[in-house]
Amino acid sequence: MKRCRMNPRVYFNNTDIYFDSEVDIYVNRFHENFDSFMHTHDFLEINYIAEGSGFHYINEEVLPVVSGDIFIIPVGTAHVYRPASTHSSSSLIVYNCVFPADQLLTWCQAIPHPFDGNRMFAQSAQDYYRYHDSQHEAKTVFEQLHKEFLQHRLGYRTLLIMRVIELLILLYRFENDSYAQELPPAAHRLDAVFTYVKKNYHLPLTLEQMAAMVYLSPSHFHRLFKKTTSQTFIEYVQNLRMEESCKLLRTTALTIQDIASNVGYSDMQFFLRLFKKKMGVTPRQYRNKR
């Protein structure tokens, strides 16, 4: 993967912002929005998508994310989360757990563990690690981490360290022994795609984004989708948008241009040609007939 070239639009966060003399772990639960900036940092970060859906911008990639997705962000990787849309009903809630890289090595020396911290978090290794918590095991750990961090009860620093180690062991299991079994069979993974597309058909959607969301290569995703639906992914999205367009033509007084925009088409001429091709009549003729 290519590393992001730093520029004025990428902000740098350092350890002084989050850590104090008492504790070197910071945990929060944040409602992501469009006011956040692309940023990088000199500490390690583990993110958990707790609720909602949206997109994760990592260096030069854009990844669709859903509840249960987990990311490890090494030192120096630029990233930011965005909800699926600007609509108030579109939420994206993310747990963040951050800590200094050198502290992890110190903790690992004190507590027996199976993972290679040097490999997993080496800045030169790769830009991120991605997992999916299909059984909600990691979500429980993040909830406990957040609770301990907020309450500051006696011994909370020790418990925070233990929870971080527990989380890393869990991710190690995802990667090495049970991760493949925890993901549902490929055909069933398409259920998440159908749900996501039905809710977000008006947004720009690509085959590559959907394939990444369900951990399949684009070519495998294409073959599986065509076999399952007898349509290509593009055809499926177009048909869904046309179905919604027909519904709006029948039940609302919206202009045809507004309807095109509502279902995801900014090019009015393309929308008119596609509608005529799919429905056999123009949008206006369809509305008049109904």
UniProtKB/TrEMBL annotation:
It comes from the Bacteria. One of its GO terms (molecular function) is DNA-binding transcription factor activity. Pfam families: AraC_binding, HTH_18. The keyword Transcription regulation applies. Residues 191-289 form the HTH araC/xylS-type domain. The keyword 4Fe-4S does not apply. Keywords: DNA-binding, Transcription, Transcription regulation. InterPro entries: AraC-bd, Homeodomain-like_sf, HTH-like, HTH_AraC, HTH_AraC-typ_CS, RmlC-like_jellyroll, Tscrpt_reg_AraC-type_HTH. PANTHER family: ARAC-FAMILY TRANSCRIPTIONAL REGULATOR, HTH-TYPE TRANSCRIPTIONAL ACTIVATOR RHAS. This is AraC family transcriptional regulator. It comes from Paenibacillus contaminans.
